[in-house]
Amino acid sequence: MSDALTALSLAEARSGLAEGAFSARELADAHIKAAEGARDLNTLITETFERALADAGRSDERRAKGEAGALEGIPLVIKDIFCTEGVLTTAGSHILDGFTPPYESTVSANLWKAGAVLVGKSNMDEFAMGSSNMASHYGPVINPWRRAGDNAALVPGGSSGGSAAAIAARLCLGATGTDTGGSIRQPASFCGVVGLKPTYGRCSRYGIVAFASSLDQAGPFGRTVRDAAILLGVMAGHDPRDSTSVERPVPDYEAALDQGVKGLRVGVPAEYRVEGMPEEIDRLWRAGAAWLEEAGAEIVEVSLPHTRYALATYYIIAPAEASANLARYDGARYGYRAPAKSLLEMYEKTRAEGFGAEVRRRVLIGTYVLSAGYYDAYYLKAQKVRKLIATDFAQAFERVDVMLTPTAPSAAFAVGEKMDDPVAMYLNDVFTVPASLAGLPGVSVPAGLSGEGLPLGLQVIARPFDEETLLRTAEALERAAGFEAEPSYLSSGGYLSSGGSR
User: Fold this and answer.
1) Of the residues 23, 59, 79, 189, which is catalytic?
2) Is 183 a catalytic residue?
3) How many distinct structural domains can be found in the chain?
4) CATH code at position 208
5) pLDDT tens, 415-462?
6) Is 159 a known active-site residue?
7) pLDDT digits (tens, 9 = 90+) for 477-496
8) Distances (CA, A) of 175 to 57, 171, 250
9) Per the residue annotation, which of 105, 131, 132, 183 is the catalytic one?
10) Which of 53, 101, 170, 367 is most buried, by the most CB atoms less than 10 A from its CB?
């Protein structure tokens, strides 16, 4: 029964629990066993199995009393960037060794109030800085997918790769991530799952370890679009403790899925056909447009002329905000503290030893662009270009309801590839960064396989706070694509035991 329970979608498990087909404890136990058997993927930094069983027991008691919440008994994994009261929170960094928050993030608190069960805290790129999940102090996460005929370990994408891989490997029924420039959508594409970045301000940032405050946004991973819609409905909402949280009612996202796309205008931005894009990705993109057209949508060519500057703009603004946010990590109050003979030496050694190479790189870039003599030339100019990018989207949305693009410029690549070329790594975000700069909602839906048998995602982008239209379009895309492929990990018995390697 264990395998049968982990094969369920979140929506199917919700129905099974409501019908009494199995208990929350049985569901939790099945996913705990799956997680224990998948430690070679390194998806979890902290396992909370004892808590999961206790949570599940209390969930069964509430259901017996008729007090079931919206996510009652559903096993989840939480990205280790969300503060969880009494549970180690590291943001994937050595500098937060031993940090156990005395408070709960708003997003995770909302999930626990709805009855969800915590299986563990997922591995991630340090401070959410990365597109591969190789930049974690706790080691790389391994994608459960493999190229056809090749057992070389692949990256899951980043920075939320641990959450995406956990969903793909069936270690949980849902997971949280954060998306600053594509850190939910890109790993969702690499792992063949659904990943949704809501509108900036839709989910509270309170209790999320900050990377770039004007860009960071929490969002859900699910096996299906419906699962993502269910999770977002619980995660979203206004929070007075977050000044960027927007006070708007939270719609019934799941109900929106049944509306279809007939009459919707779907924009296809010409600028996303970048030089050197693999033909198989362009072919899938065209197929996605055809699927939506067959479902009753109208396909419209649109232009986003400043898209070409988005990546450069992002890699000025995000590091600048990171350099300010990460200034608080000095060893004086919490986390790792390097032994030293003076206060200044402690600061220097703590930060040098506590931060990994990618974090140090971005802090140095951010400090440089904010420094005297360079602020106007780089940071201020980048902010002006960001405004132009947002204006492009606003003008395009006067003509269309949603936009359809690829999610990533490639399928998952091998562990170790691109690690020596930061620019090549940054190019993984070329299709996701523009929507992030504009604060727009976006979702990645698995839509096909590469020539090597790896998942490829298509991205839908919508107007601000129009996640309903975003999700109904994603649902139509999911239905037309009929993506049912599974990672070979599910039948291999584990890569390390079958000759694979990290």
Assistant:
1) 79
2) yes
3) 1
4) 3.90.1300.10
5) 987 666 666 666 778 999 999 999 999 999 999 999 999 999 999 999
6) yes
7) 999 999 999 998 998 766 54
8) 20, 10, 20
9) 183
10) 170
